[in-house]
Q: What sequence folds into this?
């Protein structure tokens, strides 16, 4: 997931997506980040920041740039009404979910992360608990994703501080996830490595089309991908070249 053009993504190098998460679980408080102390719980940390407790907040699991405190600050700062800059960010492990790439290009010129169900997989994630306005602000920045509810029994989630939530939200791509063209879903990669794979994907004329955009210096590829016309082309190409697979979380555990 990523920033919209209004979210200041131009100030973040698209080749470094998804940017850096915190070094430890804690609470974002404006420009500060306070790691959790072993003896302190999240509610205590929120109280120290004069913010409402976990009760009444919505738990959202991040597998991409929403794990970055810097990204979340930008998203909140660019919303059309005041948004609290206090947000818990806690490391965790999510089971039966894997991470690849969404079959679209973001406005800032990178190909964002996207989850898909995979039994037996265990993925490192970040958990955030958002108040109502924070959740509205976050939703507005994710036009290419839909936020679904997952069941902790079907997709067990374990937070670093020991909690095992019964349900939580997760953003899934409206465009599906990228594949190798033979049905295998591409793993999550850094942007230059992903560009290299896509330059060799497709067949015949479709292969040449892909090479014309993805085969070259990563800086030049990202510059091209930041163009709306190229983004529209890429989304269509992923589909026509057989590189996009739908994602179905609508079985047990999805809301």
A:
């Amino acid at each position: 997931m990523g920033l919209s053009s209004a979210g200041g993504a131009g100030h973040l190098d698209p080749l470094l997506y998804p940017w850096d998460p915190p070094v430890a679980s804690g609470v974002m408080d404006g420009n500060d980040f306070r790691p959790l102390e072993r003896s302190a719980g999240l509610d205590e940390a929120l109280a120290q920041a004069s913010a409402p407790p976990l009760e009444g907040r919505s738990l959202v699991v991040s597998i991409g740039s929403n794990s970055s405190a810097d990204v979340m600050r930008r998203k909140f700062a660019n919303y059309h009404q005041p948004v609290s800059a206090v947000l818990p960010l806690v490391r965790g492990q999510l089971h039966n979910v894997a991470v690849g790439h969404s079959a679209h290009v973001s406005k800032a010129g990178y190909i964002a992360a996207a989850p898909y169900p995979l039994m037996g997989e265990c993925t490192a994630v970040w958990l955030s608990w958002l108040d109502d306005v924070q959740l509205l602000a976050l939703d507005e920045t994710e036009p290419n994703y839909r936020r679904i509810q997952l069941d902790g029994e079907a997709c067990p989630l374990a937070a670093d501080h020991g909690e095992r939530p019964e349900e939580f939200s997760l953003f899934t791509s409206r465009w599906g996830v990228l594949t190798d063209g033979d049905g295998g879903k591409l793993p999550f990669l850094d942007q230059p490595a992903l560009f290299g794979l896509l330059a060799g994907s497709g067949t015949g004329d479709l292969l040449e089309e892909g090479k014309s955009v993805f085969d070259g210096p990563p800086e030049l590829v990202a510059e091209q991908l930041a163009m709306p016309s190229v983004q529209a082309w890429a989304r269509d190409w992923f589909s026509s070249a057989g590189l996009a697979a739908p994602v179905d979380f609508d079985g047990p555990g999805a809301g």
Remarks:
- Residues 4-10 have pLDDT under 50 and may be disordered.
- The longest helix spans residues 228-240.
